[in-house]
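thread: overnight batch results

M.L. [08:02]
morning all. the overnight job finished for the chain we discussed friday. pasting input first so we're all looking at the same thing
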Amino acid sequence: MKATGVVRKIDDLGRIVIPKEIRKTMRVREGEPLEIFTDRNGQIILKKYSPIGDMGGFAKHYAESLAQSSGYTVCISDKDMVVAASGQGKKKLQDKDISYELEKVMQQRELYLAQSGEKGYIPITDEGDQYASQVIMPIISEGNPIGAVAMLGEHPMADSDKKLVMVAAGFLGKQMEE
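M.L. [08:03]
and the structure it wrote out:
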């Protein structure tokens, strides 16, 4: 654990303010859920809650199945990081922070398609991965974007590939609502 040197008092309603710098660094936005943990030493630990992260094993199997059937690299992310990846280059994607551009795509709530070299091509992670083509669909649960399914490859995507990604994102969104 890393000390920040910041000290805050709890108000009369039991609230504490998390400093803006920490919220920004940790990508915690207003209204986002946080999990609260305690340890044996009496420490309180706050962790961003990721509903997709809770179903990591399921997301991994889904990504593997989709990658096998399509022949493309597939990754499933929550709002912060890639939680499951399969196919060529999965090691470059798995457990990496997602890019700011992918966050913006999620907020648009629409299918996103681009080719490498085009103006609209975006990196999936902060590490600047590069594929010839990409199709991305946000995962929407209860009206809110909670993640994304991305299919990445060395060839242009066909209409059937777009539909696969749309079905995957729709299915994962429905799973989260149950």
